[in-house]
Design goal:
Layout (H helix, E strand, L loop, with lengths): L2 E7 L5 H12 L5 E7 L11 H9 L16 H4 L2 E4 L2 H8 L5 H5 L1 E3 H4 L16 H20 L2
Helix pairs in contact: 1-7
Bound molecules: 4-nitrophenyl phosphate (4NP).
């Protein structure tokens, strides 16, 4: 059975679509499935933010076909690893946990990667933040992929 990876942020239009595209590009599709979701429902059905699409394109990834969806409690059963972008996302996801197994699946992306960084900052109100977000997400995904395919 494939290992199922979910990445979660608030809107599912800026940060998690980048992680979704990067993981999909780095993980072998025979062994892994990747999805993303947001803890908020404001952007359900929307494509990623144009600024995320642009920075992904700059690094050779097309994320333009993704569609935002909301995180729901069934995701604890549908995924093996749930990587969240910041402590607020963490709280929002953890409060939907129903047992210890659910809780054990949820980790901050940067910490699961072993980086000494507390969060991937929300870039929604910061046009200049997308490059940093891409770099942080990319470095995190690289480290996590190395651990997952070990
Ligand atoms: P994301 O960024 O969580 O990285 O997708 C945001 C997108 C939208 C909003 C906040 C953060 N918003 O408030 O609409």
């Amino acid at each position: 059975m494939k290992t199922r990876v979910l990445v979660v942020c608030l809107g599912n239009i800026c940060r998690s679509p980048l992680a979704h595209g990067i993981f999909e590009n780095l993980l072998p599709s025979n062994d892994f499935t990747v999805d993303s979701a947001g803890t908020g429902g404001y952007h359900i059905g929307s494509a990623p933010d144009p600024r995320s699409i642009a920075v992904a394109k700059k690094y050779g990834l097309d994320i333009s076909q993704q569609k935002a969806r909301k995180f729901h409690s069934e995701d604890f059963d549908l995924f093996d690893h749930i990587f969240v972008m910041d402590p607020s996302n963490y709280q929002n996801v953890v409060k939907l946990c129903q047992n210890k197994e659910n809780l054990s699946k949820v980790r901050l992306l940067t910490q699961a990667a072993g980086l000494d960084v507390d969060e991937v900052p929300d870039p929604y109100y910061d046009d200049d933040g997308f490059e940093l977000v891409y770099q942080l997400v990319y470095q995190s995904c690289l480290q996590i992929v190395a651990k997952l395919i070990d």
